[in-house]
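BUG: 3D viewer hangs when loading the predicted structure for this chain

Environment: internal workstation, default settings.
Expected: structure renders.
Actual: progress bar stalls at 90%.

Input used:
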Amino acid sequence: MEQKLDNNNVTNGRLGSVFEGREKCTGSVLLDYLKCAPAGVCIKGLERSFGNHLVLKGIDLDIDPGEIVVILGKSGAGKSVLLRHIIGLDNPDAGSIRVAGEDVHNPDFSKHHVLAMVFQSSALFNSLSVGENVGLYLKEHKIINDDSRINEIVSSALELVGLGGKEEVMPSVLSGGMKRRVATARALVMNPDIILFDEPTSGLDPMMTRTIGDLICDLKSQVEITQIVVTHDIDLTFYVADKIAVLSEGRILQVGSPDEIRNSRDAAVQEFIAPQFG
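Structure tokens produced before the viewer hung:
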């Protein structure tokens, strides 16, 4: 029988964790280094077409600083397109996206804010070790010129995601879930205002799915960072979310807490989540 995340064991938005019992100071070097503060996001009237196909149809969504917000939707709902707009890779036809009050398409936005993405594929460089992958941003952008200091931060980031001592391991020998934890550590060392996860449990077995869910929750207590998770995984959604936005055919059907979405009277929302709670 397939094991599922126990999304009924939520207490005030927090969950039991595979990291439970580890001290708050885990990854303390990284935590001392981080200067990021959780940022809010305001999306207003976002529209995007490709040819004659309207993909995003007036998206409105507010994300509070420090929240874990899950954008839940089936394949083709417009999740990936929305994600690309939030991170500033695509320009909308109409509407706006503001992070901490600043438009993400402002030319000076990147001088004030950093958004980090954990890709579905993890996007690690196979020719580099785990430690080299995590530290690459710091070296390439000359954030830190002291190699020993970079190594300290990298080791601390890997410890925080449960991969302490794996600096010399090559990505080719890692499982899919371990690669995504490495990608999360790499995102953290960027000092981001927001971390975005693109289908973080896609292709993973149930146990590794649980581990990724625990990691997302643990980051909230350790780093206090805003997290946006884009997924079709209903189990993961109700396991990690402070707030859920249900996306369907380019429109947000409902935004609410896990309990509000679970008890929604919207027929389309219920049709989507009913297999999980029916």
